[in-house]
Amino acid sequence: MSDVSLHGVVMLHHVTIEIPPDHEVAARHFYGELLGLREIDIPFALRGHEHGGIWYEASPDGRQQVHLGPVEIFQPQRRGHLAFLMQNLASLHEKLLQAGIQIEEAVPEPGWTRFYARDPFGNRLELREREV
Questions:
Q1: Which CATH architecture best describes the domain 14-130?
Q2: Is the pTM of this model over 0.90?
Q3: DSSP letters along the chain, please?
């Protein structure tokens, strides 16, 4: 990344998805077990603060993360969403359906297979895979 300016964005480090308080079991099931994200420890200095919740690695090299942050006044993201680049998307689609997860088919996009899913709290996620 030699052409990055002094204050240029290098990459996305993390994004926070809001969840209702006291729903960690459902969150871990969806994001950890169904989507396959690897949970990571919250840095000690941030534990117990508004930065709490559940943190996941969201890239194979661990450089991108998803943080699940409980909020007292929760409202799911209906249109705004994250898009995860996946592998074996057809298998995941079936796994989510079997788990009772709401699936929304996406408008076809050349070169991609994709669909939307709602986490247990109603947040919208896009799951996509490059077509070969």
A1: Roll (3.10)
A2: no
A3: -TT--TT------EEEEEE-TT-HHHHIIIIIIIT-PEEEPPPGGGTTSTT-SEEEE-STTS-SEEEEEE-SS----SS--EEEE-SSHHHHHHHHHHTT--EEEPPPBTTEEEEEEE-TTS-EEEEEEE--
